[in-house]
């Protein structure tokens, strides 16, 4: 079977997951940027528990930039790798103050130039905070599901994104990632995908997987 038709994948998953959106809690671009940095190697649920208090304490880039590093480390400690994350957040905040008047920039080039911000993080912020659908977020679920659907054969996130960009309509790119993440978490799981219960069963080239991880 050839690759699943992207238009049909999107249409079916939209019906299946009408509430698809980022699981991170945020109310402005800076909060989203911090939350995404914290989400590395950490569940969204744990990040949300940490940011509930964090975002009341740190409201601006200046707050993060001027905080004692050890204090910031302890504030985010439950998310893991807290020393590296604290340095990244503080470096990012200082760069925002120095280069962007304390505001989160709205371009890929400016975002990835910030400490601790890679293309995946930039895609999340651009798509969700600013409605800029420049790229496709490729996390572990997007990687797995897009491979199973035959939309890419790569394991490398950057190559996967390059494969997806010409296939996914620009206006759907942010939502497309959310849909695949929802589907990956609920149905197309790594070890035991529920192929019989999958709405993409008849168009997926990997339909019938018997619990094999991929």
UniProtKB/TrEMBL annotation:
It comes from the Bacteria. Binds 1 [4Fe-4S] cluster. Keywords: 4Fe-4S, DNA damage, DNA repair, DNA-binding, Endonuclease, Glycosidase, Hydrolase, Iron, Iron-sulfur, Lyase, Metal-binding, Nuclease. Belongs to the Nth/MutY family. [4Fe-4S] cluster binds at residues 188, 195, 198, 204. Residues 38-186 form the HhH-GPD domain. Its cofactor is [4Fe-4S] cluster. DNA repair enzyme that has both DNA N-glycosylase activity and AP-lyase activity. The DNA N-glycosylase activity releases various damaged pyrimidines from DNA by cleaving the N-glycosidic bond, leaving an AP (apurinic/apyrimidinic) site. The AP-lyase activity cleaves the phosphodiester bond 3' to the AP site by a beta-elimination, leaving a 3'-terminal unsaturated sugar and a product with a terminal 5'-phosphate. GO terms for biological process: base-excision repair, AP site formation. This is Endonuclease III. Its EC number is 4.2.99.18. PROSITE patterns: ENDONUCLEASE_III_2. It comes from Rubrobacter xylanophilus (strain DSM 9941 / JCM 11954 / NBRC 16129 / PRD-1). The keyword Cell membrane does not apply. CDD domains: ENDO3c. It holds the Pfam family HHH. The lineage of its organism: Bacteria, Bacillati, Actinomycetota, Rubrobacteria, Rubrobacterales. It catalyses: 2'-deoxyribonucleotide-(2'-deoxyribose 5'-phosphate)-2'-deoxyribonucleotide-DNA = a 3'-end 2'-deoxyribonucleotide-(2,3-dehydro-2,3-deoxyribose 5'-phosphate)-DNA + a 5'-end 5'-phospho-2'-deoxyribonucleoside-DNA + H(+). GO terms for molecular function: 4 iron, 4 sulfur cluster binding; class I DNA-(apurinic or apyrimidinic site) endonuclease activity; DNA binding; DNA N-glycosylase activity; metal ion binding. The keyword Hydrolase applies.
């Amino acid at each position: 079977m050839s690759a699943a038709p992207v238009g049909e994948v999107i249409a079916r998953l939209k019906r299946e997951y009408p509430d698809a959106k980022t699981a991170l809690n945020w109310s402005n671009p800076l909060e989203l940027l911090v939350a995404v940095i914290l989400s590395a190697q950490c569940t969204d649920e744990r990040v949300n528990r940490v940011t509930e208090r964090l975002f009341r304490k740190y409201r601006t880039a200046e707050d993060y930039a001027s905080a004692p590093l050890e204090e910031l480390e302890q504030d985010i400690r439950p998310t893991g790798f807290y020393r590296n994350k604290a340095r990244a957040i503080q470096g990012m905040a200082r760069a925002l103050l120095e280069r962007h008047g304390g505001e989160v920039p709205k371009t890929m080039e400016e975002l990835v130039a910030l400490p601790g911000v890679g293309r995946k993080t930039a895609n999340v912020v651009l798509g969700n905070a600013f409605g800029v659908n420049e790229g496709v977020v490729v996390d572990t679920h997007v990687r797995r599901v897009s491979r199973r659907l035959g939309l890419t054969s790569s394991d490398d996130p950057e190559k996967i994104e390059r494969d997806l960009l010409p296939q996914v309509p620009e206006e759907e790119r942010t939502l497309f990632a959310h849909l695949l993440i929802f589907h990956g978490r609920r149905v197309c799981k790594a070890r035991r995908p529920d192929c019989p219960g999958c709405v993409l069963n008849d168009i997926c080239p990997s339909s019938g997987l018997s619990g094999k991880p991929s």
